[in-house]
Amino acid sequence: MTTGFAGRGSELALLRKRLAMIAESGTGTALVIRGRRQVGKSRLAQEFCDRAGVPYLFSTATKGASPVEAIAAFLAELRDSALPRDPDLVPAEPTASWPDAFRVLASVLPDSPTVVVLDELPWLAEQDETFDGALQTAWDRLLSKRPVLLLLLGSDLHMMERLTAYDRPFFGRADNLLLGPLNPAEVGGALSLSAMDAIDAYLLSGGLPGILRAWPDGVPALQFAERECADPASPLFGVPEAALLAEFPAPDITRRVIEAVGGGNRTHANIAAEAGSRTGAVPSGTLTPILHRLVDDKHVLAIDEPLSVRSTKPALYRIADTSLRFYLAMGRSAHELSRRGRAAAAADLINRRWASWRGRAVEPTIQEALSLAAADLPWPEATAVGGWWNRAFDPEIDLVGADRAPVARKLWYAGSVKWLDRPFGAPDLAMLQRNAPQVPGFDPEQAALIGVSRSGFTDSATTNLALCWLPGDIISAFASPAAG
User: Fold this and answer.
1) Is residue 3 part of a domain?
2) Is residue 406 reached through a cis peptide bond, with omega within 30 degrees of 0 on the bond before it?
3) Between 456 and which of 8, 28, 423, 446 could a Cys-Cys bridge form, CB atoms 3.0 to 4.6 Å apart?
4) 375 and 346 housed in the same domain
5) Are the CB atoms for 75 and 47 separated by under 8 Å?
6) Beta-bridge mates of residue 280
7) Beta strand spans in 183-327 (E)
8) For position 453, which CATH number holds?
9) Predicted confidence (pLDDT) at residue 191 exceeds the cutoff of 80
10) Exposed e or buried b for every residue in 209-245, given b needs 16+ CB within 10 A?
11) Together in a domain, 20 and 122
């Protein structure tokens, strides 16, 4: 069980670098850390503060609190922290506004380096429309001139992006760090799992620390899921459910779109039909803006386009976070059974759907791993890795390596993923050899064929493939410095 702090070596190094720059220059630096809920932003900031060895303030906003309550809580946390050079300088009575509160903060800062963390920043901004401007003014006139590292944390990705947008007060004043989940290598290290089991654990957990903290060392993913079915309060179900409800509390059309994609409907037409009502499918003029918002602003959905030298359709949508993808595909149904005391039925449901779901869910992870490892492969220019399909989805090619996406200049390889409990064999090779030339731009005389398998390769497949990747190769790609 990950009782300690797992992964995040590159992020901690980045923060240490900024603190060292502050100590050397004597001036401040601001960093915006954004990421989805349960990804570990607060834990990263707290771990850094604990290791930094300098005074710090860690202030967390409360959703729904009034500006007066928020300012009072901020000053109380400031007074109780080790940051003020004299705690008596912090007024016992709350100040009237954020500009006054920031002036108090500036007045008690020591001359040595410090860290100030403002967590759940969007909640402060939604409580008081003047907060962003007050923060900018305080930073420009007071805080940036002091040796302070200001960390601004938030889970609403769109609002955090807007904080430093060109038309916002804090534009140009802070660097941005998008904190993603733990990668498969970090998950495997945290749970003491083999490469094969680490990838399964990553798919099930989404790499979210909130789920991994409940995961015992050495327990494979399916065994963990079965065990959690006996616990209706398990984070395996609770974390993705809470994330969904926090951002999309109303059972409106947006939620229906997310649930349609999570249920396996990936094309625009199928999503429109599934998310529609008795009056018919969702009109394109309504659905298209919702999909754009979920992809570009909320980052709940990801969009996959066929990769070749020719622009082709259709684009496919998927749930970006594998934990939420699992929850919508089968976890929610299992959770409902668990709540009714039917743990065995819940476990049986997951067992029946697991292999099929895993086989599709692993493909984006493998594509990312091949992209990360491009410099170490025979095709270092193949940094864009995706898949290809036509309108009939016959054939579908799992892996295409190219120089750019979605319309490439050159294809370097095409490949197949067989994430099964049997080796990649002669029939799989024959199908790949037959289908790969249908990808626009694939030249059998110049482009290679590759395979990725969960359970190894037969001799005939190994002989005829230019690359045979196993789970260990995927984990190595994520464990390399480039993955950081």
Assistant:
1) no
2) yes
3) 423
4) no
5) no
6) 277
7) 301-304, 316-319
8) 3.40.1350
9) yes
10) bbbbebbeeebbbbebbbbbbeebebbbbbbbbebbe
11) yes
Distance (Å, whole) CA 441 – CA 438:
8
Q: What is the pTM of this model?
A: 0.87
**Secondary structure letter of residue 94 according to DSSP:** P
Measured distance CA(342)–CA(198) in Å, rounded? 28
pLDDT band at 88 (very low <50, low <70, confident <90, very high): confident
pLDDT tens, position by position, 434-451:
999 999 999 999 999 999
CA–CA gap between residue 409 and residue 391 (Å, rounded): 22
C-alpha to C-alpha distance for 28 and 473, rounded to whole angstroms: 42
Do 192 and 174 fall within a single domain? no
Q: How many CB atoms lie within 10 A of CB 456?
A: 15
Token pair for residue 169? Answer: 């007060």
- Within this chain, do residues 223 and 161 fall inside the same structural domain, yes or no? no
- What mean pLDDT do residues 401-410 have? 96
Residue 347 has pLDDT above 90, yes or no: yes
**Stretch 130-138: mean pLDDT, rounded?**
88
The string of pLDDT tens digits covering residues 247-304 is 888 889 999 999 999 999 999 999 999 999 878 899 999 999 999 999 998 889 999 9
329: helix, coil or strand?
helix
Q: Do 378 and 478 reside in the same domain of the chain? A: yes
Give the H/E segment covering residue 398: strand 396-402
CATH code where residue 127 lies: 3.40.50.300
Do 319 and 373 lie in one domain? The reply is no
What is 5-17 written as a DSSP string?
Answer: --S-HHHHHHHHH
Q: Which domain holds residue 394?
A: 363-483
**Residue 286 structure tokens:** 């309504």
Are 237 and 355 in the same domain? yes
Type of residue numbered 376 = D
- Lowest-pLDDT range of 114-128, 193-207, 307-321, 417-431: 114-128
Contact 361, 280 (CB under 8 A): no
Identify the sign of the CA torsion 10, 15, 18, 24. negative
Single out the residue in 132, 162, 178 at which a domain terminates.
178
Q: What is the DSSP letter of 375?
A: G
Structure tokens at 238: 């609770």
182's enclosing H/E stretch is none
279 phi, psi to nearest 5 deg: -85, -5
> For residue range 27-53, what is the model confidence (pLDDT) as tens digits?
999 999 988 878 889 999 999 999 999
- The pLDDT, as a whole number, for residue 158 is 62
Q: Of the candidates 360, 379, 414, which is a domain's last residue?
A: 360
> Same domain, yes or no, for 22 and 126?
yes
DSSP assignments along 121-179, one per residue:
HHHHHHH-TTHHHHHHHHIIIIITTSSEEEEEEES-HHHHHHHTSTTSTTTTS-EEEE-
